[in-house]
User: Fold this.
Amino acid sequence: MNYIQNLWLSTCKLKPYDFYNINPSEFLDFHHITPLSLRKSSVNTITSEKDVVLLCPNCHTAIHKQMSSKRVARINLIDFKKELENKV
Assistant:
């Protein structure tokens, strides 16, 4: 469980266990910080722990929507988290 908590970027403050009574590992999505589309095919394709975070499905979708609308390959996750906190 600590491993998951270390990777989980709790952007929206959702607590899957408390809310849905399920283990976060059964609920959260992996988000690649460096998009797979930007990787060179000749480079090792194994994803490093440092290149992923766990997000709730809603935050994961929101990040990809922002990336698409802003036409950027990456969204700064710290800025994304602050943006969400300001909306609450």
Observations:
- Strands lie at 29-32, 52-55.
- The longest helix spans residues 57-70.
- The chain has four helices and two strands.
